[in-house]
Amino acid sequence: MTVIVFGSVTADLVFSLPELPRPGHTVLGPGYRALPGGKGANQAVAAARDGARTVFVGAVGADAMADIALSGLRGAGVDLSRLATVKAPTACAAVCVGPDGGNQIAVGSGANLLASAQQIDDTMLRPGAVLLLQMEVPPAEVAVAVMRARSRGARVILNLAPAAADLPRDILAALDLLVVNEHEAMMVARRLGTAPDAAAIRAALGTDVALTMGASGVTAATAAGLFRYPAFPVKPVDTTGAGDCWCGVLAAALDRSLPLDAAMRRACAAAAIACTRPGAASAMPTGAETDALLASR
């Protein structure tokens, strides 16, 4: 079928630094790289490299940054027929990466704020399709896309990242799967008045929940019960796109009708590989690379 990714696309300026800056602190690094990024684009690249037919829905400006931002999507063969060119600058992110692979990121949203759910044609949201969303485009547009997909039978996955914006409870309850990290889980739990764990959030919403915890792996609460998936041990180089890799590969695996258990394990393997490479979209593994890691464990 098809993985439809509605979300952000950015040009990333990546700075490898001897330490991450503190407030009021300037850190000099040896240089920088201009790379494609944005949570939506990263997830679309991950899904496509894992073998899914992938359509990206988002917006860029008519500027030089757009070529950088779109290079990863084009290289992965993602369908860009639903991309809009708008009268706003292409989004840009400054990504500071420390020696342990940790990062600090600032984003100028630009054209991402003009991405619209109306760019998704109704015929795309048919049963069997997977709609994957994040929160770097307007929350109101995310909400519209969720409800349209739900009414037409598509499977809906939301990565609630970043979790600064609030979505109504009924939107979260309409999802097939909610993906959160520990910080995002705490924010959701406060809004719902429950504990910040996958089982409690699922009980409050009635929606399957995957809680990603970096090197501690993933906990998933579903109708079938509570499951834990350990992370694949690696020496991280850059963790910037690991969560996006996990979401994109999960969507691709579910699109191929893999059971949720197998899809989550595959996503953990792919995310581990992404951590060993610099950059975000450029770090996403191919399906063959993920297969090889899974076969070795």
Automatic annotation (TrEMBL):
**Which GO MF terms are attached to this record?**
ATP binding; metal ion binding; ribokinase activity
**UniProt record similarity statement:** Belongs to the carbohydrate kinase PfkB family. Ribokinase subfamily.
Biological pathway: Carbohydrate metabolism; D-ribose degradation; D-ribose 5-phosphate from beta-D-ribopyranose: step 2/2
The entry's keywords: ATP-binding, Carbohydrate metabolism, Cytoplasm, Kinase, Magnesium, Metal-binding, Nucleotide-binding, Potassium, Transferase
Q: Which domain of life is it from?
A: Bacteria
The residues that hold substrate are: T10, A11, D12, G38, K39, G40, A41, N42, E136, D244
Cellular localisation: Cytoplasm
Q: Which InterPro entries did the record assign?
A: PfkB_dom, Ribo/fructo_kinase, Ribokinase, Ribokinase-like
Q: How does it assemble?
A: Homodimer.
The record's cofactor note says: Requires a divalent cation, most likely magnesium in vivo, as an electrophilic catalyst to aid phosphoryl group transfer. It is the chelate of the metal and the nucleotide that is the actual substrate.
PANTHER family for this protein: RIBOKINASE (PTHR10584:SF166), SUGAR KINASE (PTHR10584)
Query: Which Gene Ontology biological process is one annotated for this entry?
Result: D-ribose catabolic process
| Organism for this UniProt entry | Falsiroseomonas stagni DSM 19981
Which catalytic reaction applies to this protein?
D-ribose + ATP = D-ribose 5-phosphate + ADP + H(+)
Q: What is this protein called?
A: Ribokinase
Where are the active-site residues found? D244 (proton acceptor)
Q: Give every Carbohydrate kinase PfkB domain span.
A: 3-286
